[in-house]
From TrEMBL:
Belongs to the NAD(P)-dependent epimerase/dehydratase family. It holds the Pfam family Epimerase. This is Nucleoside-diphosphate-sugar epimerase. InterPro entries: Epimerase_deHydtase, NAD(P)-bd_dom_sf, NAD(P)_epim/dehydratase. Transmembrane segments: none annotated. Residues 5-232 form the NAD-dependent epimerase/dehydratase domain. One of its GO terms (biological process) is L-threonine catabolic process. PANTHER family: L-THREONINE 3-DEHYDROGENASE, L-THREONINE 3-DEHYDROGENASE, MITOCHONDRIAL. GO terms for molecular function: L-threonine 3-dehydrogenase activity. It comes from Pedobacter steynii.
Length: 316
């Protein structure tokens, strides 16, 4: 069967790289990039693009009617920091965007749906270290609340309607290709750009803030690995914990100094993102992903740092 894939939110930090990876596997003409904003040069000129607002169900219906997708990736969302600046839009986009896609996937018998969750579903009373797949989850950001509710809806549509919907709770994602989109973990991307252009960076998270992170190459590979897995192997239909590597701004700065010895890190106080980061886990137990579909990350902090600096240097 020829796969026909829609990627909604294709211009974002994940979408930009996911579209490229999917087009390599399935052919450029079989992966339709969809976003509310005009794509950058590469995406638009390497395959089909559609202007889509996931809150406009009639436009979405026309896109499903036109392409009859076999797979749909819904990446469009407001992230944690921007979500706190516009809570009602964050809830509307993250929740109703998902419900529109789940309903249309049922109507058009889409074989598989992918929807990203986040470690933001955990909250102040969740275990902080090696946070398990199942535990107390009391998110206190609109982003985290919408992702936790979205996980429940995904499992509901799987159990009630047999929809093959799959999901991963991403940690902070680090990449060099596309700009980050208003997240709390974005410091771990900005620090590399500033290390190269200024030799210094002022972090909005304090020195002790340890968060789970992952290099985008691992996140994309893991996402496609999950989507390619036999359905019978998928035991989690809410969303899989995904670990990666945990570090603080201080640890990251020390790794950068192995390449840029004079790099200096300072700290900005009273940033609202500090409270968000304080509510999240320090590290994640992703044993279910390892057991069910053989997940294994390839990038540790050292390898991630080398790859980020190498690629940004050739881009700057
Ligand atoms: C954010 N990058 O900071 C996202 C992510 C775990 C963090 O969900 O909002």
């Amino acid at each position: 069967m020829i796969e026909k894939i829609l990627v909604l939110g294709s211009n974002g930090q994940i979408g930009t790289e996911l579209v490229t990876a999917l087009r390599k596997s399935y052919g450029e003409s079989n992966v339709v990039a969809c976003d509310i904003r005009r794509p950058d040069y590469d995406i638009k000129n390497s395959g089909p693009f559609e202007f889509v607002n996931v809150l406009e169900k009639d436009i979405l219906n026309n896109i499903f009617q036109k392409y009859k997708p076999t797979q749909v990736y819904l990446l469009a969302a407001l992230l944690s920091a921007t979500g706190e600046q516009n809570p009602k839009l964050a809830w509307d986009l993250n929740m109703n965007g998902l419900l529109n896609i789940l309903d249309l996937a049922i109507t058009y018998k889409t074989a598989k749906v992918y929807w990203p969750s986040s470690i933001a579903v955990f909250g102040p009373n969740s275990p902080k270290d090696a946070t398990p797949q199942y535990c107390v989850m009391d998110p206190n950001t609109v982003y985290g609340i919408s992702k936790l509710a979205g996980e429940r809806w995904c499992e509901y549509y799987n159990q009630k309607f047999g929809l093959d919907v799959r999901s991963i709770r991403y940690p902070g994602l680090i990449s060099w290709k596309a700009a980050p989109g208003g997240g709390t973990t974005d410091y771990a991307i900005h620090i590399f750009h500033d290390a190269l252009t200024k030799g210094s960076y002022a972090s909005f998270l304090n020195a002790e803030t340890e968060l789970p992170m992952m290099y985008m190459d691992d996140a994309i590979r893991g996402t496609i690995q999950l989507m390619d897995a036999e359905s019978s192997k998928i035991s989690i239909r809410s969303s899989y914990n995904f670990g990666g590597v945990s570090f603080t701004p201080e640890v990251l700065a020390a790794e950068i100094r192995k390449h840029i010895p004079d790099f200096t890190l300072t700290y900005k106080d009273n940033d609202p993102r500090q409270a968000i980061a304080n509510s999240w886990p320090r590290s994640i137990d992703d044993s279910f992903a390892q057991k069910d579909w053989g997940w294994k990350p390839e990038f540790d902090l050292s390898k991630m740092t080398v790859d980020m600096l190498k690629n940004l240097q050739s881009n700057h």
